[in-house]
TrEMBL record:
Highest classification ranks of the organism: Bacteria, Pseudomonadati, Pseudomonadota, Alphaproteobacteria, Hyphomicrobiales
Residue ranges annotated for the SnoaL-like domain, each copy included: 18-115
InterPro entries (UniProt xref): NTF2-like_dom_sf, SnoaL-like
Gene3D superfamilies reported in the protein's UniProt record: 3.10.450.50
Annotated organism of origin: Ancylobacter tetraedralis
This protein's name: SnoaL-like domain-containing protein
Pfam families named among the record's database cross-references: SnoaL_2
Length: 126
């Protein structure tokens, strides 16, 4: 008997919209509670973040650092199988130039994000 696959696109898009684009700390905390397991781990290029509160703090700090119009936007559909999902994204000020691009890769356990890897693309030199 096979276990049904989660909706990788929906889950990873919700993570971008409801966690990494959410400026209200209470709404962000509620989203993390719904989208992540009890003890998630996020791997960033510069370190490892453990726990829901710590992930929320990282998201809030990013939004504060880059200004009020900074947004993460999905690029294409999230894909996955066997508990691993990937979604490409780009980020920058709304209506402005793209500042950074990357992908989120997530281990999904029981329909929630257990581990999240934030992968940044090399900057494009023009």
């Amino acid at each position: 008997m096979s276990i049904p696959e989660p909706d990788y696109d929906h889950l990873l898009r919700a993570n971008l919209a409801r966690v990494f684009n959410e400026r209200d700390a209470d709404r962000r905390a509620q989203a993390i509670q719904e989208l992540f397991v009890a003890d998630p781990v996020m791997y960033e290029p510069d370190g490892v973040v453990t726990g829901r509160e710590a992930i929320s703090a990282v998201a809030g700090k990013l939004l504060d650092q880059f200004g009020p119009t900074f947004r993460f936007t999905p690029s294409g559909r999230g894909i996955g199988h066997h508990g691993l999902g990937v979604l490409r994204w780009e980020a920058g000020p709304e209506g402005g130039p793209i500042a950074v691009t990357g992908s989120d890769a997530a281990q999904i356990v029981d329909g929630r994000i257990a581990q999240l890897w934030v992968l940044l693309n090399e900057p494009v030199v023009q």
